[in-house]
Write the structure tokens for this entry.
Amino acid sequence: MNNFTFKNRLQIFEYTLSTSEKKIADYVLNHVESVPFESISDLSTKIGTSPSTITRFCKKLDYRSYVEFQTLLKTDSLKVPNYDTIAEKVIEYYQLTLKLSKSIFQKISPEVLVNDIEASNKIAILGIGSSGLTATEFSLRLNRMGINSMAVTDSYSMFAQSVLLNANDLIIAISNSGETPEIVKACKEAKNKNVKIVGLTKKFNSSISETTDKIFYTSDSDLLEDDKFHNDQLSFLFFIDVITYHLLKKNRYNENYQKVLHVWKEK
């Protein structure tokens, strides 16, 4: 993970941090230029914690030691490649986004969602805005495999489906922020009817995580710290590509998919 910045690591491992460790993270974020030059004892005194807690903090962020943490933190600001073209810069951002997404979402095996999809009578994929585009793409792929799914991208239909679905059905709720009011409301209503709910978001400890049975995370382009690069869908598309691949390894889904493609090519 040496190519990942401190902020990258925080997004991946933040959910594992204790209250005292989150206090360390906040201090580092606010004193990123001075921390690499602090001894562990001086740093612990300034933060009001112990050297052993700082050592555990470093280990949780996948640094081998406090010294490695200092060294890599010192070089974070230097990790700005000299790109010849904007295209090369965007490619680099794509690669980092995908690496981060892999590290984050595989905290839960993707096969968990594959099993839920197979076991469900009907699947409603919720998303608004750019997440709605992702929901539509996901639903199209499942439909081509013969899986009964629908993309629900407006608030009225979301609420209607949350009332009509039952315990044999599945909701896949997609939200960049994890705070989309319409999606959170629909999930809360569906939970009352024992509908299985899986969330997909970029934000840890968001409202959507409180209304879902399982939650998958992908990387946030904001971590790249470039206000000229905006791609809200790439990490989500990576996720559904992985799920699609798992499903198409199963003969019945692959056969259905190939039938649809064959008919489509003939038209």
User: Anything to note?
Assistant: The chain has two domains: 6-76, 101-266.
